[in-house]
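Quick log. Single chain, no ligands specified.
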Amino acid sequence: MKALCAVTLWPTAALDGMESSIPFPLLRLQTCNGSAASKDPPHHTPNNRTCLGFLATQEYHLRGASTLYMRIIFFIILKAAVILSALTFTAAAQVGQAKAADHPSAEKNAPAGRAYSGMYTFLKEGEFVQVSVEEDGTVTGFISRFEDEGSDQGAFVDQFFRTAKLDDTKLSFTSKVVHGVWFEFKGTVERGDGKNPGDEAYYVLKGTLIQNSTDADNKVSSRTREVEFKMFPQDVAPR
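-> predicted structure:
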């Protein structure tokens, strides 16, 4: 019986003396007396030492190919990680830009807008509107006025802002409904006659005020007027 001296996975081309950089799964059996399991005619008659050398050479090439595969896989994984990181950074930047776009004027005008905080005159003497601009640019406040009708006529009524917005010097607010009455203001904050910060009328609110009211039948009526509300001096409270 003829002994088998080589069992290896390698392309047929390599066994015939041709070089190949990528191994293919092919089983080739070489006998020590020169015959082979394939039908290719032998080129020479190898001895045992030749067979062992052939096996060592093929093992070396297989290891080299495995290392090459590992490097290719590592490169693919590394490239995928870089792309994923870039996409994550881009998405985070877009989210940040979207949030900034939702409140552009609030963040930009917060420092200047805080100077507009204070009490301003309202429709009647003794009435006032309080405007407060927070550090993040949001606007809060309320209207303090006399009740015009009903059993509470003549009493003070405080109507807090339901919504308010400051965009540069453009101010708008809508009050909550109290006793069927609410107010809407849309205008600007401008410099008044006051010479120094803290003086009376250093800032004024100029714009359009809409007074809305509902009757017993829930019918809404509105009154629109152009107004100018002056800032109270900081050391004087409204009477």
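The helical segments are 12-15, 48-102, 104-113.
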